[in-house]
C-alpha cells in the first residue's frame, strides 16, 4: 500500500512543481549568504577554511542524500520511523508516470538539508579539524535530517496524537532545531577557541569583515523568502493565499526581530556601561535572522500581529541564550544555537497558541480534523503535541550529534592542534592565507621589517562588535568585573581594537615562521 505522502508527491502538478523549483533555487542562494556571514564573522587567518567547509557540505550532502537520505525522508513509510523507497531515486518515474514530481521534491529536500548542515559549521569555526566536518555532514544527510523529516512528513508525528498532528510548515524543526542543537553540542564538545575564556575572563575574538556580515545577512533574508514560501505549493486549494501569508509573516517577523535586538542592546548599554546607547549592527542582523527563523514553522497560519509578536519574542530569546552561552563558557562564534535552536523552539511552540485553524485547513483541506492554537480553540491539545514533538526532535538531534563529535574527539579528529589554531588554519591546511598581501603586512609589522603602517580602513578591519560589549556589560553586572576583559587596557576605540586584532593574528603567524627557521 502506497502511503498518502507518496501519493501527494506523485500528484504534484507541473505549475506547482515549477513554482517549487524556482523558490528552491532562491532558497539555495541562502548558501551565498551563509558563506559571507561566516567568513566575515571569523578572523582573517581562517577564512579559506570556513569557505571550504561551506562548499564541501553541499557536495557531501548531494551524494549521500541521493543515495540514502531522500529515501529515508520521503520513501514508503515503515512503522512511522523511516522511509524505504526511492533509494538513488529508483522508481521516481517511468511506466507512464512523470519523473518531475519526485525529482522536484529531491531538490526541494536537498536545499533544506544543506541549510541544516551549514548551521553547524559556524559553531565549529576556527578550531575544528576539516575531517570532522567530512564525518558529521554524512550523519546529518543520512540520519538526523531524513528521519526527522520523515517523522513530520509521513511518520509518527504526522499521525493523530491527541487528535492533532505535529505542525511544522517549512522546517522549523527539521532544519533549524536540528541544526541549532547540533551547533550547541558541537560547541560544547569541541571547547572554546583559544583565548576566548582565559583566567576566568571573557575575551572578544572579533570577526574581520563587517561588510561581509551585513551583506551575508541580507542575502540570507532574501533566500528565506523562498525558504518559507516554497512549501505553499505542495498542497492545498488556496496556494497563493498561503504563499502570500507566509511572505508577509516572514517580513514582519524579521522587522520586529531586528528592531527589538537593536533597541534592547542600545538600552542595555546605556544602563550598564557608558551612559549612552550603542546602535549595534551585529545584534540587529542576528535579530533579523531570529525573526525569519521563528516563523518558519508557522508563517501561513498566523495573522500579521502574531508575526510581530513572534519576532519580538525570538529576538529576546536569542539575546538571552547568547548571554547564557557565555556564562556557561560555551563558545558559539556565530550564535548559531541562539538564533536557530532558540528561535525555532519559540515558533514551534507558538503553533499550539497562535495558529489559526481556518488557515491550517487552507493548507490541509483533506484532513477530517484540524486542531489549532489555544487562543482560537481553547484547547491545549495542539500545544501538547508541539511540545512532545519538539522535545523528541531536539533530544534525537543532540544525541546523534554528541555521539558523532565524541567519536571524533576520541580519535583526535575533532580539533586542530594548538599550533594550527594560533598560526591560522589557512596557513597550515589550506596553502596560505585568504588575504596574502594583508597577512604579509601584518607579519612585517610584527617581526620589525620596515614597512609603512598598514591602512586598516582599506582592509575592512573591525573590532569587537557592539553586542559583544553589551553582553560583556551584562556579565560584568551579574558576576563582577573579573569575568570580562578586553584584549588590552586601552580605550575601546575602533583604531585600538583594529591594531589589537592585527597584532594578535600576526603574532600567531610570526611565531610559527620563527619556529621553522
Write the layout of secondary structure elements.
Elements: H1 4-10, H2 14-28, H3 30-41, H4 47-74, E1 77-78, E2 82-83, H5 100-123, H6 130-153, H7 172-190, E3 197-198, E4 201-202, H8 210-229, H9 239-272, H10 281-294, H11 304-327, H12 336-354, H13 357-363, H14 374-377, H15 381-410, H16 418-423, H17 425-429, H18 436-447, H19 466-479, H20 494-515
Antiparallel strand pairs: 1-2, 3-4
Helix pairs in contact: 2-5, 2-8, 3-4, 3-5, 3-8, 4-5, 4-6, 5-6, 5-7, 6-7, 6-15, 7-12, 7-15, 8-9, 8-10, 9-10, 9-11, 9-19, 10-11, 10-12, 11-12, 11-19, 12-15, 18-20
How would you describe what is shown here?
The chain has helices spanning 4-10, 14-28, 30-41, 47-74, 100-123, 130-153, 172-190, 210-229, 239-272, 281-294, 304-327, 336-354, 357-363, 374-377, 381-410, 418-423, 425-429, 436-447, 466-479, 494-515; strands at 77-78, 82-83, 197-198, 201-202. The chain is mainly α. The chain has two domains: 4-410, Orthogonal Bundle (Ammonium transporter fold); 418-515, no CATH class. The strands form two sheets. A two-stranded antiparallel sheet has the order 1-2. Strands 3-4 form a two-stranded antiparallel ribbon. Helix 5 runs parallel beside helix 7, helix 7 runs parallel beside helix 15 and helix 18 packs across helix 20.
Amino acid at each position: 500500500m502506497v502511503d498518502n505522502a507518496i501519493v501527494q508527491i506523485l500528484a504534484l502538478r507541473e505549475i506547482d512543481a515549477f513554482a517549487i523549483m524556482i523558490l528552491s533555487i532562491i532558497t539555495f542562494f541562502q548558501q551565498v549568504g551563509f558563506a559571507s556571514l561566516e567568513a566575515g564573522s571569523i578572523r582573517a587567518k581562517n577564512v579559506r577554511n570556513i569557505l571550504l567547509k561551506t562548499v564541501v557540505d553541499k557536495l557531501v550532502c548531494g551524494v549521500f542524500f541521493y543515495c540514502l537520505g531522500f529515501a529515508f525522508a520521503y520513501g514508503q513509510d515503515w512503522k512511522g520511523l523511516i522511509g524505504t523507497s526511492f533509494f538513488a531515486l529508483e522508481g521516481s518515474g517511468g511506466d507512464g508516470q512523470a519523473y518531475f514530481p519526485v525529482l522536484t521534491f529531491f531538490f526541494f529536500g536537498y536545499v533544506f538539508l544543506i541549510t541544516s548542515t551549514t548551521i553547524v559549521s559556524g559553531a565549529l569555526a576556527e578550531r575544528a579539524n576539516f575531517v570532522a566536518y567530512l564525518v558529521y555532514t554524512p550523519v546529518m544527510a543520512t540520519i538526523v535530517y531524513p528521519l526527522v523529516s520523515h517523522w513530520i512528513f509521513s511518520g509518527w508525528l504526522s499521525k493523530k496524537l491527541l487528535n492533532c498532528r505535529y505542525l511544522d510548515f517549512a522546517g522549523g524543526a527539521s532544519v533549524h532545531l536540528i541544526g541549532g542543537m547540533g551547533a550547541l553540542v558541537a560547541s560544547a564538545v569541541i571547547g572554546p577557541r583559544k583565548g576566548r575564556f582565559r583566567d576566568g575572563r571573557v575575551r572578544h575574538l572579533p570577526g574581520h569583515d563587517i561588510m561581509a556580515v551585513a551583506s551575508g545577512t541580507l542575502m540570507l533574508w532574501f533566500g528565506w523568502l523562498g525558504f518559507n514560501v516554497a512549501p505553499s505549493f505542495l498542497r492545498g486549494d488556496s496556494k497563493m493565499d498561503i504563499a502570500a501569508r507566509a511572505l508577509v509573516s516572514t517580513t514582519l517577523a524579521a522587522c520586529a526581530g531586528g528592531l527589538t535586538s537593536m533597541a534592547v542592546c542600545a538600552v542595555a548599554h546605556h544602563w550598564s556601561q557608558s551612559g549612552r546607547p550603542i546602535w549595534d549592527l551585529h545584534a540587529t542582523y542576528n535579530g533579523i535572522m531570529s525573526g525569519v527563523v521563528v516563523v518558519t514553522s508557522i508563517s501561513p497560519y498566523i495573522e500579521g500581529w502574531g508575526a510581530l509578536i513572534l519576532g519580538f519574542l525570538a529576538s529576546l530569546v536569542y539575546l538571552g541564550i547568547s548571554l547564557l552561552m557565555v556564562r556557561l563558557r560555551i563558545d558559539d562564534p556565530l550564535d548559531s544555537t541562539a538564533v536557530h535552536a532558540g528561535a525555532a523552539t519559540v515558533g514551534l511552540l507558538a503553533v499550539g497558541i497562535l495558529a489559526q485553524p481556518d488557515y491550517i485547513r487552507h493548507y490541509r483541506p483533506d484532513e477530517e480534523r484540524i486542531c489549532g492554537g489555544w487562543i482560537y480553540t481553547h484547547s491545549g491539545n495542539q500545544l501538547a503535541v508541539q511540545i512532545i514533538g519538539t522535545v523528541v526532535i531536539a533530544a534525537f538531534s543532540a544525541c546523534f550529534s554528541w555521539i558523532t563529535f565524541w567519536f571524533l574527539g576520541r580519535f583526535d579528529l575533532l580539533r586542530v592542534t594548538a599550533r594550527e589554531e594560533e598560526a591560522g588554519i589557512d596557513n597550515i591546511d589550506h596553502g596560505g592565507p585568504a588575504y596574502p598581501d594583508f597577512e604579509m603586512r601584518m607579519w612585517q609589522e610584527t617581526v620589525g621589517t620596515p614597512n609603512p603602517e598598514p591602512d586598516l580602513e582599506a582592509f575592512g578591519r573591525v573590532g569587537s562588535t557592539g553586542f559583544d560589549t553589551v553582553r560583556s556589560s551584562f556579565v560584568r553586572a551579574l558576576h563582577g568585573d573579573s569575568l570580562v576583559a578586553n584584549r588590552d587596557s586601552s580605550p575601546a576605540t575602533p583604531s585600538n581594537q583594529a591594531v589589537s586584532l592585527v597584532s594578535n593574528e600576526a603574532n600567531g603567524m610570526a611565531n610559527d615562521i620563527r619556529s621553522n627557521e
